Amino acid sequence: MTEQPLLNEIKALIKSSGPMPVWRYMELCLMHPRHGYYVSRDPLGREGDFTTAPEVSQMFGELLGLWTASVWKQMGSPQFLRLIELGPGRGTMMADALRALRVLPPLYQALHVHMVEVNPVLRERQNATLSGVRNIAWHDSIDDVPEGPSIILANEYFDVLPVHQMVRHENGWHERVIEIDPNGKLQFGAAPEPTPRFDVLLPPLVRAAPVGAVFEWRPDGEIMKLATRVRDQDGAALIIDYGHLRSDAGDTFQAIARHTFADPLKAPGQADVTAHVDFQALARAAEDVGARVHGPVTQGDFLKRIGIDTRAAALMQKATPEVATDISIALKRLTDTGRSGMGSMFKVLGISEPRLTGIAGLSDLEQAGEAS
Question: Where does the signal sequence lie (predicted)?
């Protein structure tokens, strides 16, 4: 039997303080200072637990680089730009984006790269991947990134922020909790008392949910931070994640280990636990602080609008038949709407300072190809 120090610690906490809200459980699973999933390992790639879009193909990062160039031009081509990535994985996306940006020397010279990463293992990987990059710094939080015009990239970042779950009972909405069953195993439960006036804050779709329905919500702090930053200091943020376009009821709390779904209560700290992102809630919070919102659109639409088909064709032209097949498979994976594709499951949302009325790939269709 494998040692499970975090499971034992969580059980001890429940025994001493009572049932634990889902958000707190998720926070401990991911960010516990010693046993948290995201502070102790490299979870990416074939050997890890999941694969992100930048690991699927270089085209993803390259196109985000060209998108950055397009936004920089719309900002008036400032001579100084902070390019910030939140949760940058192995540094693959940033390396691909910077390679694409080298063709634009005025922008490349203007760049100061900021990587927001708490995982020391991944920081080392990023450092190695980006070893030739000048003007690069690492931070634990976006709060630590100095002020200035910025373009912020957040790919698969919001899905791991802790989520609150509420369960509808006859007498109102109760916080969903983790408790210990009679056999000593973790199980879901609900707080005995409903959260007062919780339904007042709910979107209309959710207010009509039946008894037993689960509703998930995240605090707005993180999105408001990004929105306030670009509103006040000029720039834009691009958020790419899997989730839904409209706020609705549904339980999406899940664990992934070795590329397959796992029981999120089974081995805390040893699997990636996530929940879908509510893009309507993100957009509403950004608009509430006075930033401009662009989209959301599906990842497939976004990538096609900014020229992924053209980029794939150019790469395939120079490639061997084997490599051309790989490029074709990667293109399908990034843009297809089927179960194996990321095209419709992933959504893309842009947030900018109010003067940027249109952003490539996210605004009107006339924007299509502007970054390519």
Answer: none
* Residue 340 CB partners (closer than 8 Å, separation 6+): 333
CB neighbour class for 195 (10 Å; exposed up to 12, middle 13-18, buried from 19)? middle
Helix (H/G/I), strand (E/B), else coil: 50 = strand
- What residues contact 4, with CB distance under 8 A and at least 6 apart? 267, 268, 269, 270
Count Cβ atoms within 10 A of the Cβ of residue 90 and give its class: 0-12 exposed, 13-18 middle, 19 or more buried. Answer: buried
Domain boundaries along the sequence of the chain: 1-163+216-303+343-353
- Rounded Cα distance between 59 and 308, Å, is 7
Strand 346-352 relative to strand 292-298, pairing: antiparallel
DSSP string, 52-89: -HHHH-HHHHHHHHHHHHHHHHHTT--S-EEEEEES-T
Residues in a beta bridge with 351? 237, 293
213-258, pLDDT tens digit by residue? 999 999 999 999 999 999 999 999 999 999 999 999 999 999 877 6
Distance CA 178, CA 25 (A): 7
DSSP designation for 348: E
Q: Say which CATH architecture domain 1-163+216-303+343-353 belongs to.
A: 3-Layer(aba) Sandwich (3.40)
Q: Are 62 and 97 in contact (CB under 8 A)?
A: yes
Tens digits of per-residue pLDDT, 246-305? 999 999 999 877 657 788 998 898 888 999 999 999 999 999 999 999 999 999 999 999
How many Cα atoms occupy the beta-carbon half-sphere of 209 within 13 Å? 24
Q: Which residues contact 269 (CB under 8 A, 6 or more apart)?
A: 4, 5, 6, 7, 28, 29, 32, 35, 36, 37, 40
Query: By C-alpha distance, which of 116, 113, 86 is closest to 102?
Result: 113
